[in-house]
Amino acid sequence: MSPLPDATYDALYRTVQAEVGVRLFTISLLDRAARLSRRAYTSHPQDYPVTGTKPMGGDDWSRRVIDEGQTFVANTTAEFAPFFSDHAFINQLGCQSAVNIPVSNGHETVGTVNLLDVEGYFTPARLDRLHAIIAAERPALVAALQATPLAG
User: Fold this and answer.
1) Number of neighbouring beta carbons within 10 Å of residue 41
2) Band of the pLDDT at 151, cuts 50, 70, 90?
3) Closest Cα partner for 11 from 137, 148, 125?
4) Is the pLDDT of residue 48 over 90?
5) In sequence order, which ranges of 1-152 are alpha helices (DSSP H)?
6) CA torsion, points 76, 83, 107, 17, in degrees to nearest 10?
7) What was the pLDDT predicted at 111?
């Protein structure tokens, strides 16, 4: 991978940590041809390596986040467990809430920024700040996602 994506992802992670703070931070790239979401960046490489993939399904999460470009917010495990098969492992990492923010190239969702923390963590104020950070970094983030190889 070229330095551009790594530097962009690292900078976004540092900004999110400084302004909001999260326990787990990943960025996923959508591989529409393979119908997979591929992890492009992770704050926890031992637990969630960048080689990880998840199938892109036809569930409510995919419809909302990928197709409609809306943020998914779940402040309890019960809210995200139906969509995240790894919810028990997420809980073992001390995370019981999740947010997935879609990243669009202007035409379609090309990736997601994924944040996890303790139950109830993602308050309206934190969500507003996260949306502002990602909106400000969207051009660089889209460029980084486009420069990230699809092959795991």
Assistant:
1) 26
2) low
3) 137
4) no
5) 3-19, 60-62, 77-80, 87-92, 124-147
6) 40
7) 96
Cβ atoms within 10 Å, residue 13 = 18
Give the residue among 102, 126, 120 at the shortest CA–CA distance from 112.
Answer: 102
82 to 39, 47, 57, 76, 87: CA distances (angstroms)? 20, 21, 12, 11, 9
Domain coordinates in residue numbering, the chain:
3-147
Classify the C-alpha dihedral 134-140-143-145 as positive or negative. negative
Q: Determine contact, residues 109/65, Cβ cutoff 8 Å.
A: yes
Over range 61-85, report the average pLDDT: 95
Q: Which two tokens stand for residue 142?
A: 């889209």
DSSP summary character for residue 105: -
The C-alpha atoms of residue 114 and residue 26 are separated, in whole angstroms, by: 5
H helices, E strands: number in the chain: 5, 6
**How far, in Å, CA of 56 to CA of 91, rounded?**
22
Cα–Cα distance for residue pair 100/114, rounded to 1 Å: 5
Amino acid identity of 5? P
The hierarchical CATH code for the domain 3-147 is 3.30.450.40
Q: What is the DSSP letter of 110?
A: E
Between 88 and 150, name the one with better pLDDT: 88
Q: What is the DSSP letter of 108?
A: S
